[in-house]
Amino acid sequence: MLCRSTPVLVFSRLFISVSVAQCLLMGSLSGQDCNLMEGDPAPEFEALTGNGEIWRSRDHIGRRVIVVYFYPADLTGACTLQACGYRDRMTDFEEADVEVVGVSGDSVENHHLFSELQSLNFPLLADEEGKLAKAFGVPVRNGATITRMVNGVERSLTRGVTASRWTFIVGKNGRILRKDTAVEAANDCEKVLETVRRLTADSE
Known about the structure:
By secondary structure, the protein is an alpha+beta fold. About 25% of the residues lie in helices and about 30% in strands. The protein has a 5-stranded mixed beta sheet. Strands 1-2-3 form a 3-stranded antiparallel beta sheet.
């Protein structure tokens, strides 16, 4: 399916909660970021999706393998390629018992627009303050406002922070199976799917 445009609705702003205790156990003090390693427990968190619903990690971890991928911004070239890649391979991820969530510093409204325009079939979590990124140790920098034409109308999209492009695979036991800090947007989904299949085969 090619990337396309459709109308958009507007929802409320971000809500996010992160388990502080895990960061403290891993040596994150006085505002320093966590440095999660493979084998460490993933932080417990919750945030609003583009549909304005709360996505809670505790409701998902343990049931399926969870891919949490951080990306810089909605409606930008590389980030759109990455999102569309996951969208187009979602059947393969479901067959591999994998759930995918994307995270950026964009607002709920931005996520809703992005999801509608690209017909995304997985949730995007709003992390405007960068709390979720910091809980995973993902570097963030200042946010920005970009302008995009949507169905012939100019839209200004503001994001709170800009996260680096990192991808995490969280196992059913709640621990980090893989941490990728050198993600290539266009082939991230293929690399993740291959990794999950290999890890699953190794554990059988």
